[in-house]
Sequence to fold (302 residues):
Amino acid sequence: MSASSIEFVEVGPRDGLQNEKVLVATADKIALIERAIDAGARRIEVTSFVNPKKVPQMADADAVCAALPQRDDVTYIGLVMNLRGAERAIATGRINQIGAVVVSTDRFALANQGQTSAESVVVAKEIISRAKAEGLSAQATIAASFGCPFEGEVAEDQVVVIARQLAEAGPVEIALADTIGVADPAHVARLVGKVTAAVHPLPVRVHCHNTRGTGLANVWSAVAAGASVVDAALGGLGGCPFAPGAAGNVASEDVVYMLGRAGIATGMDLGKLVESSQWLGQIMNRKLPGMVAQAPLFPKVG
Ligand code: ZN
Fold:
């Protein structure tokens, strides 16, 4: 492991909440964002600008943006699937970075955003250009990079080709998402290595779900292979409404614990994350999957 630090991105307010049956109040979302900032997060995926009929949890995107804390040092990310969503995100005046999503396979792309995979790449490039024209930054995520809920295996070279195409549009980074949590650490090492080489000098971000218990191992493997940015969601909330069987993200506190103990700086305060994860469990009225928040603090303080 050569990395001494990573950039941490909190995705709980968007990816974490979008698949929850309980509709979370806007005020609670803002409290979650404030807690993430207080714990050290400087990039936060705050919402998505998608069809509220399909994703009712994100229907308050405009209200969330209007209530975001005024912070020059925090990058607020809004996720979009099409140019209409990008226009909505731009119109809020509060989103700093637009996240475009492409899908590696046709069947999932059609289910997720009504486009083929190739169409999703074209649209993502338009979204990135549009964001940059407005003085915003943009990033691109390749969903189902490690496996598709409908088509199964995804060829690594296919993902590399998509990453190269996206890089042409000038995003701040390319992200590989294991949307349905099927990746294993060897697969992650190979694909992160290939994509890192293909899009150099652009950074590679990883987005791992813990559906099959490989989430943390995959994060570790990705960082070792050169990924410099890691997504996680407080408490391990999350899932995708369009991906059958998708479960939670890797938990922020679990990622921060693992990397921190291994000497890789995340800029995050573990104690505050643990406390916030417990708070979030009360808001969601259930036990969250994250493990570190359920265990005694180690090492003991005081
Ligand atoms: Zn996700």
